[in-house]
Amino acid sequence: xxxxxxxxxxxxxxxxxxxxxxxxxxxxxxxxxxxxxxxxxxxxxxxxxxxxxxxxxxxxxxxxxxxxxxxxxxxxxxxxxxxxxxxxxxxxxxxxxxxxxxxxxxxxxxxxxxxxxxxxxxxxxxxxxxxxxxxxxxxxxxxxxxxxxxxxxxxxxxxxxxxxxxxxxxxxxxxxxxxxxxxxxxxxxxxxxxxxxxxxxxxxxxxxxxxxxxxxxxxxxxxxxxxxxxxxxxxxxxxxxxxxxxxxxxxxxxxxxxxxxxxxxxxxxxxxxxxxxxxxxxxxxxxxxxxxxxxxxxxxxxxxxxxxxxxxxxxxxxxxxxxxxxxxxxxxxxxxxxxxxxxxxxxxxxxxxxxxxxxxxxxxxxxxxxxxxxxxxxxxxxxxxxxxxxxxxxxxxxxxxxxxxxxxxxxxxxxxxxxxxxxxxxxxxxxxxxxxxxxxxxxxxxxxxxxxxxxxxxxxxxx
Length: 463
Fold this sequence. Notes:
- By secondary structure, the chain is of the alpha/beta class.
- It contains 15 helices and eleven strands.
- It has a single domain (about 1-455), classed as Amidase signature (AS) enzymes.
- It has helices at about 1-5, 10-20, 25-40, 50-65, 110-115, 160-165, 180-190, 220-230, 265-275, 280-295, 305-330, 340-345, 350-370, 405-410, 440-455, and strands spanning about 45-50, 75-80, 120-125, 170-175, 190-195, 215-220, 260-265, 295-300, 380, 415-420, 425-435.
- The model has no long low-confidence stretch (mean pLDDT about 95).
């Protein structure tokens, strides 16, 4: 029974809760039972908040029974990446440096989820301060991929990806500076949405690179991401980069016709710039054919070379990360893991002129992409060119086949969905990229693909 309940989508569970056929308490207990049974090998959670979650579930059940249903997240158990501040609960960044860091207030997004009636199951593991890779010299072990425990789950939102895929929460919060929502979504076979820059507040989220950081949802389906986005999106004066724009009804467009939508296949990314695996390419081509059958018009499109975006992203990320961590790195470097310390310290040697020129080129590339997308509604490419790597050193991250960083540079909305499975049963991935603040269109296409492909019926087999 617990597996049956923990594999419900948010949309399915919400409907049962709304109609009174599913108790938020029963649902929360099912997730807590599954966490207890599986997380000792998955290590998706740093901290499980069992008593707090059950109390929130009781409050939700009482309110709903009295006619106070707040919406699709009311009574839904979620996990929070441990870089999101939680009032009175440690927020560690998966680092010894912040082991005892207890914020006084929630991050804006955590507050919004609580106000929507969500149940917070606990804090999820991450790469240290959302950079680097899976490390074994930190206070908590790295998360593992539920499809194969010898494989990485991706990161930095590693616990979020693993927990959603394994049914240890209905949805999760991730963050994305160079691909940290979409990378674990790709390797764990789930849906991960990096919103348009500025659409979701980052107030109260431990920063990595101010001009690249995005906050967003990770779920089993694009539909569930849309339901979470309805709560998360909106202007927040507490985030200097927050955009004051209207929030669409993300769920309203789901299920509508794709006829006339124009899809630009960025073939040179995965065939020439960073050649991807044959299975990844074959799955993408099949996905493009499926979208064409649903009414979309698919054609090749050329944008700037992948490496141009990626090099810019790395320069900006490393420089800004070092600026954020400089004080701690120069006073208590031993409190960092070796991999995180090495990655962040690399920003110390980037000259100011290099950083400034990177930001200037960034504006040019963003303007060029806006112009290129006047002829298409979305771009299509792999999220990652290969399925999940085995655990190893930083090289195993395979950044040479990553297609996520360009859209941190430009700030466009980007959704990763599962496009199929490799011959050895690992998820393959596809990325859908939209125009600025057209997140609803991106989620609509992801939802249409998932429902037409039938891929969401296959979960990792964990005993």
